[in-house]
Amino acid sequence: MRYEAVLTALMATLALVAPLRAEDDQPSPSPSAADADDRVSRARRAFVDGARLAEQMRWGDALERFEASAKLKRHAGTTYNIGICHRALGRYTLAQATFRRALAEHEASGETELAPSLLENTRAYLEEIDRVLASLDVTLSPADATITVDGRPLETVDVDGKPPTLVAGTEPPGAGRKAPSGRFRLVLDPGTHIFVLNAKGHGNVVLRQSVAAGASRHLELKLERLPAELAVRSSEALSAVSLDGIDVGAAPVTLLRPPGRYHVEVRKAGFEPYETDVMLRSAQEVDLLATLNPEEPGIHERWWFWTSIGAAVATAAVVTYFVVKPEPERPPLDGGGLGWAIRVP
Q1: pLDDT class for 277, splitting at 50, 70, 90?
Q2: Residue 219: φ, ψ to 5°
Q3: Among residues 71, 60, 62, which one has the least CA distance to residue 8?
Q4: Burial class (CB in 10 A: 0-12, 13-18, 19+), 4
Q5: Which of 81, 233, 245, 259 could form a disulfide with 252 if both were Cys (CB 3.0 to 4.6 A apart)?
Q6: pLDDT (tens digit, 9 = 90+) per residue, 48-99?
């Protein structure tokens, strides 16, 4: 591997120096040309530094210098060496993406930037990485949850696949992104990874998962819906509160409940009951004020009711008296001197 890095360094250095030699014949380079020369010169120095560090197997430091060189001047040889560093550091998904980019850059240059031996090595490395990478068949609920793996969002490499294919570890660190669907294939490096999932109205999930090299298995990622908060207050202190017919205490009372529809009743002696239906959503906070109105007195509690009842009772008593009053006995009839008497029915 050292020999490959050094060889690539020499090739890329020659490629970077060639434009400078062509420009040496120009009598007075323009400011823009001088700036370009400076960028090439700095890119060459960074590349040479990276090659030296790679020889020492200081892969992290070498990677930094190769990437600095690539920012100043793109070259397939530089990209190849970046892939070598990622592979040595165990970042196989990044190495895979980098080697593929080196092939694309080589093709775009008219196939002039990579030697045949490097082309052969690049393809061999890609085959090796395909055998090393792990694969997870992920089911995500809810499907619109955002996800990061090791602090990086996922890269979608095949959105039209069934299921789509996403890769972990190739994107810069950042916030999570949504997957194309609730089911997808995830390609990632072997080892231990930290998954972080977020979705509105659901509790965050932080999950540690370990995968072996070349492994393939199913992974279900599910976020639980957050409860809703229902606060019930009443215009009258110590009113009894019930939820779906179950006593939950005296107002004011605060309840945590799963999302759904609930029937709320607030009661207190001497007041009309308060009843309503409430629809609660995940993580929602609902403040309910029950205004209790005094009960109207019943008919038996009104003054005119008892006055009319008293009058009716008195009237009934008079009628009863005349109905049951005994008829007075008539005095004996006096028949006079003849003793005659006429009885009238």
Answers
A1: very high
A2: -135, 120
A3: 62
A4: middle
A5: 233
A6: 999 999 999 999 999 999 999 999 999 999 999 999 999 999 999 999 999 9
Q: Which of 282, 283, 278, 230 is nearest to 254 (CA)?
A: 230
Nearest CA to 253 among 271, 226, 229? 229
- In the numeric block, the tokens 């639980």 are attached to 224
Give the H or E element holding residue 12.
helix 2-23
Residue 79 and residue 91 share a domain = yes
Domain ranges, residue 29: 2-132
Q: Which amino acid is at 138?
A: V
Look-up of token digits 């990478």: 133
Task: Answer for the pair 129, 95: CB distance below 8 angstroms, yes or no.
Answer: yes
Helix, strand, coil abundance in the chain, percent, nearest 5: 40, 30, 35
Domain boundary among 251, 267, 290: 290
pTM (two decimals): 0.67
- 47 and 162 within one domain: no
Tell me whether residue 231 is exposed, middle or buried, using C-beta atoms within 10 angstroms of its C-beta: 0 to 12, 13 to 18, 19 or more: middle
Distance separating alpha carbons of residues 267 and 288, to the nearest angstrom: 14
pLDDT at residue 327 in the model:
58
117-172 confidence digits (pLDDT tens): 999 999 999 999 999 999 999 999 999 999 999 999 999 999 988 899 999 999 99
The count of domains in the chain is 3
Q: Is the Cβ–Cβ distance between 69 and 78 less than 8 Å?
A: yes
Same domain, 119 and 154: no
Which of the four pLDDT bands, split at 50, 70 and 90, describes residue 113? Answer: very high
Residue that terminates a domain, selected from 189, 222, 255: 222
